[in-house]
Amino acid sequence: MAVKLVKPTSNARRKMSMDDFLDITKKKPEKSLTVPLKKKAGRNAQGKITVRHRGGGTKRMYRIVDFRMVGDIQGKITAIEYDPNRNARIALVEKDDGGKFYMIAPKNAKVGRKVVAGEKAEARSGNRMILKDIPVGTVIYNVELTPGKGGQIARGAGTKAQLMAKEGKYVQVKLPSGEQRLVDENCLASIGEVSNPEHKNIKVGKAGRKRHMGIRPTVRGKAMNPVDHPHGGGEGATAISPKHPKTPWGMPALGLKTRNRKAKSNKMIIRGRKRGKHV
Question: What pTM was computed for the model?
Answer without folding.
Answer: 0.86
